[in-house]
Amino acid sequence: MPCPIAAQTHLDPQPFEPEMGGRLEALEIAYESWGTLAPARDNAVLVCPAFSAHAHMQSSAADPSPGWWEGMVGPGRALDSDRFFVLCPSLLGGSFGTTGPTSTDPATGKRYAEHFPVITVRDIVDVHLRLLDHLGIECLHAAVGGSLGAMETLELGVRHSSRVARVFSISGTDFTRPYTAAIRHLGRQAIVLDPAFQGGAYDPQHGPAGGLRLAREIGTLYYRSPGEFNERFTHRPVAPPTTHGITFEVQSYLDYQGQKAVGMFDANSYLALSLAMDLHDLWRGYPSPDAILSSGIDTAFRMVAVREDRLISVEEQEHLHRLLSLAELDVELQVISSPVGHDAFLAKSERRRMTELIQGFIEH
Amino acid sequence: MPCPIAAQTHLDPQPFEPEMGGRLEALEIAYESWGTLAPARDNAVLVCPAFSAHAHMQSSAADPSPGWWEGMVGPGRALDSDRFFVLCPSLLGGSFGTTGPTSTDPATGKRYAEHFPVITVRDIVDVHLRLLDHLGIECLHAAVGGSLGAMETLELGVRHSSRVARVFSISGTDFTRPYTAAIRHLGRQAIVLDPAFQGGAYDPQHGPAGGLRLAREIGTLYYRSPGEFNERFTHRPVAPPTTHGITFEVQSYLDYQGQKAVGMFDANSYLALSLAMDLHDLWRGYPSPDAILSSGIDTAFRMVAVREDRLISVEEQEHLHRLLSLAELDVELQVISSPVGHDAFLAKSERRRMTELIQGFIEH
């Protein structure tokens, strides 16, 4: 899993101490950018990647491979590169150029692998703030993200309000609910139970492919929706029935999704980011939500929830919206309907709608 | 996995040819019963077990271990043994006394194991009809079941209407939707990927425990509901966070549920019954639902759906209700709300309500 080709990397020599303990002697922060930073450095938009995403959100001349949010950045697009300096950094703990379990630990000269510390969304935020410091960006015009990316935008808006004027959160939440943690637990179990995992000390060429595949398949059921699957696939067997193999179309689809994950994820990174999402809690360390919400936050928040989302429910997003509203923050929640469910923000079929929603907010 | 102690076993020497092919040279059908069959043989109630259930639905003097539907059968109870002859047979393909992968194949003298044929809910029905034939029961007073048991009651009512006067289906469906099949696919994958599974040819003492555990954990998320988990468990870590082990309360709960399954299920049986549910399709072989629904069915149907059910949605049960209504059958659908979700019919907290619903129907 190399750093995306076109990404730049900021080498930050300062040690980093994650929230839950441990220490990284230095940081690498990979990022890509589009557009030009204005002389006043006030036109930066931070795109916060989701779990499976990274710096390469969009193809470019330097790296023509499709990005994970292809079509969303460029002249006149949702993130207008004629107007904004759009910045997308890979995630701490991931395996796409920013320091993570596949990086070399300067202390040992070996990969961190199973020794990589537990990280949280707050750590991800802190690493990205270091990048902003390096680039001289005091305050973002906006931070935009879906899912894990949305958790990051919310942490930024609530706990680092002076660093971001606008937060656009899609399928985000204030803290991870036990049911959602249970889902991710299953994915981590699938990886940990694979004998090839070897407690995280696997040979990178022979990692826990079966476990990763199953983890991704488990996730896929929650990233999508029953309505989508039931429309898209026939319920009739497409092969002679078998308990071990493929009988139904939906099984081929899931196996395909799982197989893609094997080339995409490092297992230790999968675990690190999965747990980071479970540990997400905007209110951790405060006696009450209001203790931080009444601290003079002037960031504007726009939240988008998807009715069909099986991972982060509309109800919990309404709960967060209510908390922010009661604290008299500038917040709006828009509930949309999409057969895709949680992954709506990533779906090509929803690009136009997402573009309108984002433009309507950040170009204001 | 021995046959429950108190079960009787009917040895049926006739060969059995499953719907999807293959052949069993003979059948064993384990069952327990309560009450007395009336001279007219018209007071029998068949309880159709769910996926993890078996003949032992209720403790007795002969077998005091708690049954899977403890408290539901006995004098004055939901299934009144003073009035009805209540019959509960284990499932074909299971590992509780009725012929399944753990049974000995008379042709080879060895366990069927991975050579057990693919079975369907129709096969399960046909085996139970053989037991009714043996007992001289021409027409059941009622058939009652939840989940897989409900699929069986519906097959009985629609395709063997002359054999059953009343069908009581809880969380049943006319055919398995692709999203639900996708869920079960994950469980089967968890088992198949466990190296101890060995393509089904595992040593019974050293079966795929890890895979079974994970399969059960995956299932548990769908048998219960987000509301229940989010009420019941704290979202805060209960231990120092770790990517490999237990950080949250809900993880301990799931691991406990999974561990229980290891002693409860044979892996090949798990696969056989899981696939049987995915293959469930009341309309298979008919040009349209109406082709069978207009064939003079006079069974009365009562369906109970649970609003919070994540496995079999209310919508699909409404769909079936509509089909039966349009065919002018005697059918009612009652939608209840229970934080438990799909497993409501099994939950102690719902016993009283289930009792009222069942009595209100079958004692009429």
3D architecture notes:
- The structure is a homodimer of 364-residue chains.
- Helix content of chain A is 34%, strand content 15%.
- Chain A contains 10 helices and 12 strands.
- The first copy, chain A, has helices spanning 121-135, 148-159, 178-193, 209-223, 226-232, 249-264, 267-278, 289-293, 314-326, 351-362, and strands at 8-12, 27-34, 44-48, 73-74, 79-80, 85-89, 104-105, 110-111, 142-146, 166-170, 300-306, 330-336.
- In chain A, the strands form 3 sheets. The first copy, chain A, has an 8-stranded mixed beta sheet with strand order 1-2-6-3-9-10-11-12, sandwiched between helices. A two-stranded parallel sheet of chain A has the order 4-5.
- In chain A, α2 (148-159) links the parallel β9 and β10 (166-170).
- Chain A is globular.
- The model of chain A has no long low-confidence stretch (mean pLDDT 96).
- At the A-B interface, α3, α4, α5, α6 and α7 of A face α3, α4, α5, α6 and α7 of B.
Task: Set down the secondary structure blueprint.
The structure is a homodimer of 364-residue chains.
Chain A: E1 8-12, E2 27-34, E3 44-48, E4 73-74, E5 79-80, E6 85-89, E7 104-105, E8 110-111, H1 121-135, E9 142-146, H2 148-159, E10 166-170, H3 178-193, H4 209-223, H5 226-232, H6 249-264, H7 267-278, H8 289-293, E11 300-306, H9 314-326, E12 330-336, H10 351-362
Parallel strand pairs in A: 3-6, 3-9, 4-5, 9-10, 10-11, 11-12
Antiparallel strand pairs in A: 1-2, 2-6, 7-8
Helix pairs in contact in A: 1-2, 3-4, 3-7, 4-6
